[in-house]
Amino acid sequence: MIIDVNVYLSRWPFRRLPHDNPTSLVRKLSQRGVRQAWAGSFDGLLHKDISSVNSRLVADCKEHGEGLLVPVGSVNPTLPDWQEDLRRCHEVHQMHAIRLHPNYHGYTLDSEQCSQLLKEAHDRELVVQLVLSMEDPRVQHPLLQVPVVDTKPLETLVKQYPDLRLVIMNNYGAIKESRAAQLAESGQVYFEISHFENVGALEKWVTTVPHERLLFGSYFPFFNLEAALLKFQESQVGGLATSAIQYSNAQSLTAAAKN
After folding, report:
1. Residue 179 pLDDT
2. How far does CA 3 lie from the centroid of its chain?
3. Where are the transmembrane segments (predicted)?
4. Sheet holding 69-71, edge to edge
5. Where are the domains of the chain?
6. Residue 259 pLDDT > 70, yes or no?
7. 123 pLDDT above the threshold of 70
8. Helix, strand, coil % (nearest 5) of the chain?
9. Interatomic CA distance for residues 236 and 82, integer angstroms
10. CA distance 143 to 218
11. Phi/psi at 180 (nearest 5 deg)?
12. How far apart are the C-alpha atoms of 58 and 56, rounded to whole Å?
């Protein structure tokens, strides 16, 4: 059993991806043993009508992956009435998590906009997925250069909201293992594994960061799904840590958000 906390629906804005239609995506996830996938939408990066983005996401999850695809809404605090988008995610769509893309939406982690959004998410006991990067800056479209999110303010944010369940996504080398361990100790901070690169990277993380704070994430279909699965073959992490990372930690996060 696997719970994948990092999946996207719809189309990547700059090229077609294999399995970027929901039918094919769900079939591939099922074939590889994924029983639940937390799905955001690529449309949430650039579209301004976030409410419609989230409504389409919910409809696609129900139509193509009822029980497997779990919608995770986008919220952009630079847009008017973002509080209503957040309310609809929680109260109308019954989402347990939201997904943030600060670098695509033009705000920093030390901004007042970010602080207000995290406070409201904290008050609603939502899981917050913070995406640090979507694409290697070296291959980005020349007219849309998007840097990796500056994570320097994270320690301050975690101290401000120590009970906020925060999942760091697409960690494109911005946070090393030792700093990740400190963040995990300071608050409810988790890390998904899609961007753990190099041979044995997962094993290295498990020796530094408590395995209770690691989550299976594939970043599928942008990344090959098998790439995330292979991390468990090339690393010696043990059965207990493997089951925790592949599903039980995500199960606990979901249960806590619903209680």
Report:
1. 97
2. 12
3. none
4. 2-9, 34-41, 69-71
5. 2-256
6. no
7. yes
8. 45, 15, 40
9. 44
10. 27
11. -60, -40
12. 5
Label residue 258 by pLDDT band (50, 70, 90): low
192, 207, 199: which is closest to 231 by C-alpha?
A: 199
Strands (E), the chain: 2-9, 34-41, 69-71, 73-74, 97-100, 127-131, 166-169, 189-192, 214-215
Q: Is 197 helix (H, G, I), strand (E, B) or coil?
A: coil
Look up residue 133 and give its amino acid. S
23-40 tens-digit pLDDT: 999 999 999 999 999 999
Query: CA 86 to CA 97: how far, in whole Å?
Result: 10
Domain 2-256 homologous superfamily, CATH: Metal-dependent hydrolases (3.20.20.140)
Q: What is the mean pLDDT of the chain?
A: 95
What are residue 73's phi and psi, to 5 degrees? -80, 155
- For 83, 120, 199, 258, the CA distances from 91, given in Å and listed in that order, are 12, 13, 43, 12
- Rounded Cα distance between 235 and 200, Å, is 5
State pLDDT tens for residues 8-23: 999 999 999 999 999 9
Q: Are 40 and 7 in contact (CB under 8 A)?
A: yes
User: For 163-175, what is each residue's pLDDT tens digit?
Assistant: 999 999 999 889 9
